[in-house]
Write a structure and sequence with these properties.
Elements (H helix, E strand, L loop, with lengths): L7 H22 L6 H14 L3 E5 L2 H11 L7 E4 L6 H8 L3 E4 L22 E5 L10 H11 L2 E5 L7 E2 L2 E2 L6 E5 L13 E5 L2 H10 L4 E3 L2 E2 L10 H11 L2 H19 L13 E2 L5 E4 L3 H10 L29 H9 E4 L7 H15 L3
Length: 368
């Protein structure tokens, strides 16, 4: 049985008429960059996240970058984050001229371990950027307690956490600001690139709105040298359509995760732990296995597509070798990157496919 990791073609088939109508509407209004559809999406996504503001942007990396700038991150500052993430998390810090400082992860959740946070803080620490990896929110209460005591700002990297909740509050509303990605593979994905910054802070929102459009506060009135980080009108229209389906898709992802957990119980593998007070949205459903390369090959032979998120922690990437973190510095993150494996978890997967994937994994790995 063939099981893809993700099936965006099937998703489009179910939305085709709505999408084509939205494209036609954008074209008839000639509203190709920002415009009415983007503004409407900003209002709707802010309401969804429970925030006062949403600033739509060209991609998730731009959202991280502007979020950090809005929090006052400058050259020479330090920003603490997780080494177990996509490179863009660290890149945004670099764009500001600041230095990424990493903290190892909690082995139970794969997110930044708050117990290790305090010792990483220095006089140069300007911000903390927890990553809600795989759709599971970081330990925000603990992180807030430490940040408030040190007067440090917090930016959520919520690129994988659309709709996730921490203690009843949605990702995007858990810190000074939050950065989202709408890359096509995300739970809420555009048909191209897209991103957003959410916040309850008027100053942060006003800065981001100006910065995304060359520092303009009025047309041809440039308060500072900004960026071209604007969202295209069509992406706003597509995201508005998809946002209406997001809760149903999330419920399906959670159902799939429960089935995987039930079926894989007792297997020679590990699965991250969910806090019952929170709500994971399962951007990825990951397991940890030994001999991953062989497992991937055997699953591929059974036509089960998998992926690795992520094979190498950021501190061991060539791009960040200058930071001077040798192998072994963050052993939990390094071990997770060696063993992690993502299984198919898209809303359109069938019960038969879930059973086939779980059965194939157990067939390969065996039971404890």
């Amino acid at each position: 049985m063939k099981v893809p990791l993700l099936d965006l073609k099937a998703e489009y088939a179910g939305l085709r008429e709505e999408i084509l109508s939205a494209l036609d509407r954008v074209c008839r209004n000639a509203s190709f960059v920002q415009g009415e559809e983007v503004e409407a999406f900003e209002r709707e996504f802010a309401a969804y996240c429970g925030t006062k503001h949403c600033v739509a942007l060209s991609n998730g990396t731009a959202a991280l970058h502007l979020g950090l700038l809005a929090l006052g991150v400058q050259p020479g500052d330090e920003v603490i984050t997780s080494p177990n993430t996509f490179l863009a998390t660290a890149e945004a810090i670099t764009y500001c001229g600041a230095r990424p400082v990493f903290v190892d992860i909690d082995p139970a959740t794969a997110n930044l371990d708050p117990k290790l946070l305090e010792r990483a803080i220095s006089q140069r620490t300007r911000a903390i950027m927890p990553v809600h990896l795989y759709g599971r929110t970081a330990e925000m209460d603990a992180i807030h307690s430490i940040a408030l005591g040190s007067k440090i700002r917090i930016l959520e990297d919520a690129a994988q956490a659309h709709g996730a909740r921490s203690r009843g509050r949605r990702a995007g509303s858990l810190a000074d600001a939050a950065a989202f990605s709408f890359y096509p593979t995300k739970n809420l994905g555009a048909y191209g690139e897209g991103g957003a910054l959410t916040t309850n802070d008027d100053q942060i929102a006003n800065f981001a709105r100006a910065a995304r459009s060359h520092g303009q506060t009025l047309r041809y009135e440039h308060e500072f040298a900004g960026y071209n980080y604007r969202m295209h009108g069509f992406q706003g229209a597509v995201l508005r359509i998809k946002l209406r389906h997001l809760d149903a898709w999330t419920a399906r992802r959670q159902e799939i995760a429960r089935e995987y957990r039930r079926m894989l119980a007792g297997g020679r593998l590990e699965i991250p732990v969910d806090d019952p007070r929170d709500e994971c949205v399962y951007h990825q459903f990951v397991i940890y296995v030994k001999n991953r390369t062989a497992v991937i090959a055997q699953l591929a032979a059974l036509e089960v597509e998998t992926a690795v998120h992520y094979p190498r922690p950021v501190h061991l990437q060539p791009a960040y070798s200058s930071l001077g973190y040798p192998p072994g510095t963050f052993p939990t993150a390094e071990r997770a990157c060696e063993d992690v494996l993502s299984l198919p978890v898209f809303p359109g997967i069938t019960a038969e496919q879930i059973s086939y994937v779980a059965g194939s994994v157990l067939e390969i790995l065996g039971r404890k």
